[in-house]
Design goal:
mainly alpha, 8 helices
Length: about 160
């Protein structure tokens, strides 16, 4: 009996298991927060697209700028077919707008609609709260170390 429990305990403490559990817990938290602000029809991936669009500001004017699907895809690490499904759902619910690129019709620009923009303060709050959950009880040096180590693990796959 002890060997089975010890084996399960070891399985739960591998780095990949810990990362998966953190991702699962973070997604559950984000889902619950999205529902609380009235975005129950979208998932965390949709929420991440909205957040990325809400942070894409011109450095000089601080105005929101549209992004191509390719740019968004790189930021949220999703392939083209997945992005198409996610973007189509956000369009359907009116959170974003798709505009044709007049100089190159292969590309279109995605931006937040007025409805999507109305959620920016809440998305920023949720993002801040999630970061606070991640780093609760960490010193500044520990935060930097954790980020550095996780980034190093990620770079091993790229």
């Amino acid at each position: 009996m002890e060997n089975i429990e010890q084996s399960q305990e070891k399985k739960l403490t591998t780095i990949s298991s810990l990362i998966a559990q953190i991702q699962n817990d973070a997604n559950n938290y984000l889902d619950s927060q999205l529902k609380k602000i009235g975005l129950s029809e979208i998932t965390t991936s949709h929420g991440f697209i909205l957040f990325v669009l809400s942070q894409n500001k011109n450095t000089e004017t601080q105005k929101l700028e549209p992004m191509t699907m390719k740019e968004i895809s790189k930021r949220i690490d999703k392939n083209k077919s997945t992005m198409t499904v996610l973007i189509d759902k956000l369009l359907k619910y009116g959170y974003i707008i798709r505009e044709k690129n007049n100089s190159d019709t292969r590309y279109s620009y995605i931006s937040l609609s007025e409805k999507g923009k109305s959620f920016i303060p809440e998305m920023e709050r949720i993002s801040k709260e999630l970061s606070e959950k991640f780093y609760n009880g960490f010193s500044e040096d520990e935060k930097k170390t954790v980020f550095y180590l996780l980034d190093k693990i990620l770079s091993n796959f790229n």
